[in-house]
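User: Hey, quick favor. My workstation is busy. Could you predict this chain's structure for me?
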Amino acid sequence: MAREFAARGRDLALIARRLDRLEVLREELLAQHPGIRVVLRELDVDDPDAVASG
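Assistant: No problem, here it is.
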């Protein structure tokens, strides 16, 4: 989904448990679509405390 939105020129906010994987994806997206912005956040949605404080 992120790749599709990036191809449409949309800025993205991406959230996942594994920040390292998001960083790889961000680099890919920015290389293919240099005009977009990609913001990353590490978050485990199975952790209620993390979600509440996020």
